[in-house]
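Project outcomes to date are best conveyed with an example. Our students and postdoctoral researchers have been running inverse folding experiments weekly, and each run begins with a structure described purely in tokens. The record below, which covers 389 residues, was selected by the lab manager from last quarter's runs and is presented without edits.
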């Protein structure tokens, strides 16, 4: 039995780390996790033990945030918290035979400092952003170190690019976070076109995003026949949802959000995979969830918000990462002009998703190119087990 410590730094990274941890546990290894930001809820829900106590900040973690988000992190003490997490790693590092990094330069530096053997899944970086990946200092130098026994990328283009840059093999085996949404869910009772709404998972940004999406739904023409599903996390309960939606004249009754003159919205909790799989169009304000939608070959329409994370800048970077099947209307975030353009674009994309074979084929091709095929978790866990052997 080998002792493995997972280092991750974000909501999506925790999800991938959890799936890898479960695969490695099934192989008989002793796995713990050290989330460098956030509560590590994905690990806890899956029964993966944490190394030390965790804490969550309002921005969701150090990463791609607005200036306001970065200042909020500093004010809330997140930098000091990160340093304490690194010190905790240093105290316990000799208990582990392998450090498994899921994330970006921060856990890469932490793993290198541990002086333990390391395997790295660079889920946060892709050559699709700029054509050639420019790793932040000192990430490239550390990845060349013999301490790093294996490097895995999030797509084939990045694997080829980094293999040249680092002058060592970088392997693409798929993305573990896709495995959780690829198990077939029961189909809906009707074939009516479906729109799914993804407001994200971090509060209080979740509430701001949801209000923006409610304003958008009010602008959809009532003549178009479709169902609207809202994929909502459990942290926003019915009472909170009712109080929030009342600000714009919506009310919640029997799992339906309703507003005079607008189509009703089905509130769906605990059925994220089913919502994604059966949607014809995804309208989203999220990170990993949008990647999963693209991986399922769904056209995506973004609605940039006010942040701290899903800003216009984040949305633009996401389009470079995920390709031409991710769309966004022009206009300032939250403006009437932008919302009207988004509503018009949503109706056009919903029709194309059902009627345009060209868009359907493009979605399938981009899903494979950007996210890969199913089985990323088992494949990566098997490769890590081979390293340990």
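After processing, the design step wrote out the following sequence:
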């Amino acid at each position: 039995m080998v002792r493995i410590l997972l280092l991750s730094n974000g909501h999506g990274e925790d999800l991938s780390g959890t799936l890898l941890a479960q695969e490695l546990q099934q192989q008989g290894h002793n796995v713990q996790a050290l989330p460098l930001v956030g509560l590590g809820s994905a690990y806890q829900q899956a029964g993966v033990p944490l190394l030390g106590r965790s804490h969550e900040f309002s921005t969701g973690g150090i990463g791609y945030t607005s200036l306001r988000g970065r200042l909020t992190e500093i004010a809330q003490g997140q930098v000091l918290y990160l340093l304490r997490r690194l010190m905790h790693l240093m105290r316990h590092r000799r208990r582990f035979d392998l450090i498994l990094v899921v994330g970006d330069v921060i856990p890469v530096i932490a793993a290198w400092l541990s002086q333990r053997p390391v395997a790295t899944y660079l889920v946060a970086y892709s050559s699709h952003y700029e054509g050639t990946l420019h790793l932040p200092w000192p990430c490239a130098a550390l990845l060349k170190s013999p301490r790093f026994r294996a490097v895995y990328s999030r797509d084939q283009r990045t694997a080829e690019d980094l293999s040249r840059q680092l002058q060592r093999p970088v392997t693409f085996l798929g993305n573990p976070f896709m495995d959780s949404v690829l198990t077939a869910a029961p189909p809906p009772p009707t074939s009516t076109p479906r729109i799914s709404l993804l407001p994200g998972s971090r509060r209080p940004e979740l509430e701001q995003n949801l209000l923006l999406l409610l304003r958008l739904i009010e602008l959809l023409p009532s003549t178009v026949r479709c169902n609207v599903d809202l994929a909502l996390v459990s942290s926003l309960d019915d009472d909170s949802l009712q109080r929030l939606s009342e600000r714009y004249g919506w009310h919640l009754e029997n799992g339906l959000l309703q507003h005079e003159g607008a189509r009703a919205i089905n509130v769906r909790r605990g059925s994220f995979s089913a919502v994604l799989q059966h949607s014809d169009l995804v309208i989203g304000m999220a990170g990993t969830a949008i990647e999963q939608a693209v991986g399922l070959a769904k056209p995506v329409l973004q609605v940039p918000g006010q942040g701290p994370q899903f800003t216009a800048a984040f949305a633009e970077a996401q389009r470079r990462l995920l390709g031409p099947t991710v769309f966004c209307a022009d206009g300032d975030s939250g403006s009437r002009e932008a919302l009207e353009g988004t509503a018009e674009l949503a109706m056009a994309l919903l029709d194309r998703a059902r009627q345009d074979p060209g868009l359907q084929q493009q979605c399938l091709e981009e899903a494979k190119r950007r996210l890969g095929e199913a089985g990323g978790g088992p494949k990566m866990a098997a490769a890590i087990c081979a390293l340990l052997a």
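The two ends are 10 Å apart (CA to CA). The chain has 16 helices and 13 strands. The training component of this project remains on track.
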